[in-house]
Amino acid sequence: MSELAWWQRGVIYQIYPRSFQDSNGDGIGDLAGMTSRLSYLADLGVDAVWVSPIYPSPMADFGYDVADYCNIDPMFGSLAEFKQFVDRAHELRLKVLLDFVPNHSSDRHPWFVESRSSRDNPKRDWYLWRDPAPGGGPPNNWLSRMGGSAWEWDAHTGQYYYHAFLREQPDLNWRNPHVRRAMDDVLRFWLERGVDGFRVDVLWLLIKDAQFRDNPPNPAYQPGEPDHHRQLQTYTEDQPEVHDIVRSMRATLDEYGERVLIGEIYLPVAQLVRYYGVNGDGADMPFNFQLLNAPWNAGEIARMIRDYDSALPAHAWPNWVLGNHDNRRVASRVGAAQARVAAVLLLTLRGTPTLYYGDEIGMTDGVIPPGEVQDPAELRQPGIGQGRDPERTPMQWDASLPNAGFTTGRSWLPTATHTSVQAQDGDASSMLSLYRRLLTLRRNNAALVQGSIEHVAASGDVLTYERHCRNQRFFIALNMGRADAEVQSPAGTVLLSTVPGRDGQPLVEGANRLAGCEALIASI
Ligand code: NOJ
User: Could you tell me the strand order of the sheet in which 129-130 lies?
Assistant: First the structure.
């Protein structure tokens, strides 16, 4: 498998740092805590950790509002502790990916403080400032993804600035070459410190229409959806010039060897795949989020796999994401039994998988009492189900300890105790054991890493496909229903099943039984 890059062979694990491991009792996770848990991740069998933002930040959006791109927030530690984290990860052969947040900064970032200080400040044009509309009011109809107008009035200089998210997150002007150079320096700052790549926040939003035209109404809008769904994002996302920026990020990373560029992009597949660029000059992996909202049925998933595979440009490497800090947890979306099926799916599809912390023990969405909501997306548009706290609750290490071992202090979000790493560790039938076995199987078998995906099919509730690499062939069958089902298969031997006792058993050519919610991998 040596001809593949490490990020093609590997599995990525996302850490939400506030919630992974606290080391100093302040109730919020930190770098020293993460470092202490790296051996758990190496044992689990993942290859890279992506860490959500840890930069200095007023935390209006929990770190996605960056006040200094080249430092560490004291809440998380220091640059020295970051070095210890990277060094320890590398000792354990784990790669480290940072979250790069170039679309917007915090309104407390010195760049914005300068920019808003006067109309003729040299940094004025680093952000998007516009005069009021001719009759007064915001310059156009653009809406914020956190609710309301995306324009904030600045009385001091008599103009509005644009913010795709919170007003505390002004958007940078990526048409300004100075901004591009400054952000390039940020990438280099971290690359010099040994970072192995970046997940780029909202990559598809970086460039906005140069003429600031109004977005058209969205005819499919349903009442109760987030505000910005009222409009098609025609002039605020996926603008053609964005690809030039992706190319320049790619070029910078290429100067440092095999570093990975991943884009957070929520777009239909046809638009998504353009972010791969031409002949490898784009992102290595535009995140493929289709599983996050997929209707959980065999026919839909089969169609999705086939469509994605055929939409990929020739040079493009696929990837699949099952969970992240912005979406409901998989175990809550599909239930505990199907979360196991989902694990087998994620780790046997063609392409790099990204796991979300805690999914490997089947964590479910936490329950947040009404007075304890933290997420600004929920606080500013209450009641529309946008709240992201439930999927951000602390990692459950040991249910017998206060806060499940996450903190000795008062946890920033409630910690659930329905399960834990400690409870699942020695249990061969646990979700954690399933993930460990899957990760080992994947690492040791070229068909699962670099094999083609063939014969993707659905029959009733059962999804089947094969992975082929030279003379190694695997057959995967997933029962996405609760009832027993029949599956047509080639003759083979079960290597792994979610049903205890089935490993090592033969599959006959033709009809075989699958238990309800069973997923299996067989060599054929
Ligand atoms: C996407 C991030 O994943 C999300 O958590 C954040 O709120 C927005 N970008 C704004 O940075």
Answer: 129-130, 159-162, 151-154
